[in-house]
Amino acid sequence: xxxxxxxxxxxxxxLRKSFQARNIQTIAMDFxxxxxxxxxxxxxxxxxxxxxxNSYIVDxxxxxxxxxxxxxxxxxxxKLFYGAASDYALVFKKYQIRMARVVxxxxxxxxxxxxxxxxxxxxxxxxxxxxxxxxxxxxxxWMHRPINPEAxxxxxxxxxxxxxxxxxxxxxxxxxxxxxxxSARQKAVFPEFNYDPTPRIYKTPEFRDLNKRAQEILKxxxxxxxxxxxxxxxxxxxxxxxxxLFTLARNPDSVKSLRPxxxxxxxxxxxxxxxxxxxxx
Length: 281
Description:
By secondary structure, this protein is of the alpha/beta class. It has 13 helices and 6 strands.
């Protein structure tokens, strides 16, 4: 699969000018990101674009936030996504970008009440395209450069069928008389988005089920893990698993059963013990 790599601000500016010169008003788009799996934090790692004829890979790690904003907030381009909510949230949290003119094809699937919601399932049902083998890249490190060419082909696979899928889904929506429901659904996907910085762990039923004291302990442990992971640029989960946070919050003395050579290196193990000691005072 051939594609053009966009890895400078000027190249991205030229791409937008090319769309305008060729009267391209709609592009298919998808993101690949890093979500505290291989390093600390959430990062936009790749933008895949298909204009109906040509494919492009935009490397956001080499593009300025200004030009990313100019592209993603452009009112000149309709952007076809499938399952755009997490992508929308990522660029807002990372760059305060509010993507403009997004059409999320998952909304079509929702109003049609199709049995499978994943893109592979929908492509198979609607376009008879067999599902791709995605297991190899489900936990891929998209921060790594250079990017594996095979991974880039995998990533582009999520955009090259979106135009055909849009036409097929739109026809079904119209035939079923669901245009009003689709319009309402599209508006509901992207309400006035305001980033809530509250860590997701504090919103879980497991956290709410803790007593007040255990919640205080978990918050202290979480803050220590987050700050330490940021300093080491490592995944917080790799430093101290979420399940262990809850175990220690419920029973701080269980730290004695941890083996530093397996769970933490000796220095971090001593830091963890110190955190728990201060909480218990």
